[in-house]
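Researcher: We plan to redesign the surface later, but first we want a full-length starting point. Tokens attached.
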């Protein structure tokens, strides 16, 4: 059975690890990628294995939590890290690391959202 081609474009945030929606085995590649974003104990839960949309929902929550953690670490670093006796160069490097991590996690959050929307569209069409 041939899948009809659509004019829908893939989001620029679509993760390269996930096949194009509608292509062979794309949901499996999405689930595999999503499992990497959640703690291992969650990835093995039968409901998440059987229902990638549930896994996507949990991954969205997980990544949002990680963004909050990274932002908190960034916002408190300047006040907290000197008390640990760390050299200024280490503190500055750490602040840059946290800032980069926030940006990286925001990109992952957009990617998870794109995959979740594609999974939801797929299941709405069933």
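Model: Full-length starting sequence:
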């Amino acid at each position: 059975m041939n899948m009809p081609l659509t004019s829908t474009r893939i989001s620029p945030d679509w993760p390269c690890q996930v096949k194009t929606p509608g292509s062979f085995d794309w949901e499996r590649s999405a689930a595999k990628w999503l499992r990497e974003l959640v703690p291992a104990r969650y990835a093995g839960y039968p409901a998440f294995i059987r229902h990638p949309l549930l896994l996507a929902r949990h991954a969205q929550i997980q990544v949002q939590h990680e963004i909050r953690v990274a932002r908190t670490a960034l916002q408190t670093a300047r006040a907290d890290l000197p008390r640990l006796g760390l050299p200024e160069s280490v503190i500055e490097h750490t602040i840059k690391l946290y800032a980069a991590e926030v940006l990286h996690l925001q990109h992952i959050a957009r990617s998870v959202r794109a995959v979740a929307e594609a999974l939801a569209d797929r299941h709405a069409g069933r």
